[in-house]
Queue: 2 jobs
Job 1
Amino acid sequence: MKRQFSLAHLTVLGCTPAEMTYIAARAGYDFVSLRPIYMGLPDEPNYALAENKEMLRQTKKALDYTGIKLHDIELARIYDGLDPKKYLPAMEVAAELGACCVLSSIWTSERNFAIERYAELCDLAKPFGMTVDLEFVTWANVTNLKDAMDVLRSANRENCGIMIDTLHFNRSRVALEELDQVPREWFHFAHLCDAPQEIPTTKEDLIHTGRDERLYVGEGGIDIAAILKRMPQIPYSIELPHLANVKELGCAEHAWRCLQTAKDYLDAHLGA
């Protein structure tokens, strides 16, 4: 089966959804992974499509013109005091644009609250035919595969999922054998990137690598092939922010290099 790739918005966050769709098409991606849930982070552009009808119109036009599909949206964070219905407008737009997955992560220490809100997210997404895929993030509250699986088992929803990011898998020191315990139907897509072999020891340095300086696949110290060999073949969303490379090369060239290096690496290590 032909491998499929998506361009994650964080890779070219300075581009609007329409702009990144055209870039993805020219580079040869199959999908885009959009960020229409505004999180209010420092210097983060607001791409809340449900609130910006002109941006939504332009995004639809780009998807229709290029034939690129929307794969997933992010980020439906679970945090203290969250009402998951807050994400309904973004889900509605995502469904309208053809998305199949909603990415989530957990930023509260209250386990029962997190499980209840994750289950509610799944219930909200189900009528749209979308899964809710939980990502463990090294500097969040659910930081490893074991705890993420505990949330999914406790929530017990048909449309739940686990999203493996190769950076967080490596930084959280997850054992490869743990992937063998994940039900195959929980895998819907994965995030690909590489990073230096040495794992940072501070939260600040972990965040810096994750948001500003990930490496092209095959250029760092993560055994990406070993991770992917223990998972079914699923779409690979390349989430590879590198601010210096974008500044030097431009978004289009950076996105192309992200895809080409990933394809070359996977062909060499997993077979063409």
Job 2
Amino acid sequence: MKQETLFVAFSTQKGGAGKTTFTVLAASYLHYLKGYNVGVVDCDYPQHSIDKMRKRDASQIDTDESYKQLAFAQFKRLGKKAFPIINSTPEKAIETAQDFLESDARKFDILFFDLPGTVNSQGVLGSLANMDYIFTPISADRLVLESSLAFALTVNELLVTNPQIRLKGLHLFWNKVDGREKTDLYEVYEKSINEFGLPLLKTFIPDTTRYKKELSTDGRAVFRSTLFPADRRMLKGSRLEELLIEIAHIIKL
């Protein structure tokens, strides 16, 4: 039986939590390194941050010979183009995705959706209801955590527990973890998360500047890009690969 395309979102209602960054990193890792066919539906209207990143990436390749050679070698090795980015709005996200899948001859394993941060935005809740899985980054900042948990509890109560809704689950994961923080702080927070009945991934992401590193004018190694996967030399210690392996297991990719 033909497997349907998975709909997945990194989503939270707290700005700056990393949902767009993880959307790009996950799409690039799975598409360029693991051989899956991936697409991104950029619904963060009107910013369309991922589409803007693609334009920056393409412009940098045009003006930098080392990146140009890297792109050529990647295309020759993979035999496929960069993952597509489809712009939409929150209320039309699912319709846009379905129209794209019907019109494109390729078989896509997964579509990632980049949605606005608040469930009160028009169309966001309906789009979240049509995801297969949601992954929510959280950090050990009280205000950020309270906002993230409020979002997760709302989605869990309204959507995950409803058998008529497509959404199979929402999973939290720690982001921007400072290695100097005491582990007992996380134990206290995790106890509360468990009491709420919210699943928490085992992998945590350290607080490191490499998650902000895009293509640059000096042609150095890149971590976050829509045209290249994270450089192997920068993956070590980032725990990105561990996170995506855990996610792939959950979504049965």
